[in-house]
Every structure is written in C-alpha cells, then in structure tokens.
Amino acid sequence: MREQHIELDTGAKVRRARRPDASLVLVGFGGGSPRPTPLADSPSLVWLLDRLAAEGVEAEQWELLYRLASWHDLEGCIRDGAAAVREAAASGRPIALLGFSMGGAVATAVAGHPQVESVVAASPWIPSELALDGVRGRPVRVVHGALDGWLPGIPGVPPRHSRAAVQRMRSLGVAATHSTVKGAVHPFAVRGPGGVLIPAPGARRRARLIKDEIA
C-alpha cells in the first residue's frame, strides 16, 4: 500500500494508505490530550489500524491528524473530522468510521454524511451534550474495556459513560450495540523505546470484535 498525506481545508491532515481496489474507505479518528497538540497521531489508533489490515480487513485506511488534538477543542476536532469525511467521499466509495476515545465523539458527530454506512467506537468519550442525530439510520458498535477509567496521570473513560451514550442512541431508534471486554484498559497501545507500539491489555480481543464489525 502506498501512503499519502492529504492536507485538509481546516489545516488538519490525513494519512492515507492507498487501496484503489478496496470497496470501502475506513476513516479513523484518534483521541485527544489536555493540551492542544498539532498534527499528532494516536498510538492506539495507529496500532488498531495496523492490526485490522494485518487481519485482512479489506479497506483503504484514512487516519486523521487533527489540526490541534485536544478534547478542550472538540468542536475544532469535529470540523477536522467532517473535512476528512468529505475528502474521503470524493472517491465515491462507502465509508466506515472508527473512533478511539475522543475520536468516538468525532465519529458520531460527522456520521450524517450520506456515504457513511457504519460507525465503530472504541473506548469512546461521547459527551452527554453531543447531538447524536448524525448516527440515525446507521449501525453503531461500541467496544469498551471493562478496566477503563481515570488513573493518576492517565486519562480514561469508564464503560458506563459509553453505555449511557448507547442508550441515548437507542432512544433515537439507532441500532447501537455495546460490548465490554474483560481485562481491557483504555489505550490499545503505547509507544515504547524507539517508537515501537506495545499493545495494552485486552487490545487484541477488542480488535477482533472491531474487525468482525467492519468485515
């Protein structure tokens, strides 16, 4: 696969692994941080996309690099996400969205584009005030780690948070499901020495559930 970088009109970028033969475009949205970080990738999303490709998911992968990756600027990250979906739609192919952590909020917010067919949210943060109208008519699969939660110096999202979001979706008639993986924590991976991605507990089991949904 040939990798490209595409600059979006918001100042964000997309890292695209070109697969002209693939019938699906998978657009991935990573998490944020307390401080705005320009064009930073998400180790968890990178690991997850690599894992899905290695396990045979037939999709062209798009990884969004937010202009400023921070949950304190969720609106800005959503604008970046919408721009990425518009760009992906130019291929004419159906789109699946994959959001990790804050990326779950971004994915649900931009899912209203007519070419978006499904949403998968991995350990997502979906604020209670975020409108969910965009996911109407699309299946949503939420996969969360049972041990996810805030620890000293380590952000996390308790699974009860995403269960509440799924209940809100169901009240709108959305076909939303929620799976909790025992022993799994918030991240899918962390960067070790030399930038090597080290999978976190429960990462592979969550990835299998996500692979089945996208496949």
How would you describe the overall organization of this protein?
It is a single chain. This protein is α/β, with parallel strands linked by helices. The chain has helices at 43-54, 74-89, 103-109, 159-171, 203-214, and strands at 2-7, 13-18, 25-29, 60-65, 95-100, 116-122, 140-145, 176-181, 189-191, 197-199. It has an 8-stranded mixed β-sheet, with helices on both faces. β9 (189-191) and β10 form a beta hairpin. α2 (74-89) crosses α3. The longest helix is centred in the middle third of the chain and has 16 residues, at 74-89. 45% of the residues are buried. The model has no long low-confidence stretch (mean pLDDT 94).
Structure, briefly:
The chain is built from five helices and ten strands, in the order βββαβαβαββαβββα. With 215 residues, the chain is of the alpha/beta class. The protein has an eight-stranded mixed sheet with strand order 1-2-4-3-5-6-7-8, with helices on both faces. The protein has a two-stranded antiparallel sheet with strand order 9-10.
Main attributes of the structure:
eight-stranded mixed beta sheet, 215 residues
Number of helices: 5
Rg (CA only): 16 Å
Any idea what the shape is?
A: globular
How do the strands line up in the largest sheet? 1-2-4-3-5-6-7-8
Please tell me the overall pLDDT.
94
Low-pLDDT parts are: none
- Tally the beta strands: 10
Oligomer: single chain
Beta content comes to 25-35%
Structural class based on helices, strands and sheet pairing: alpha/beta
Main sheet: strands, sense, barrel: 8 strands, mixed
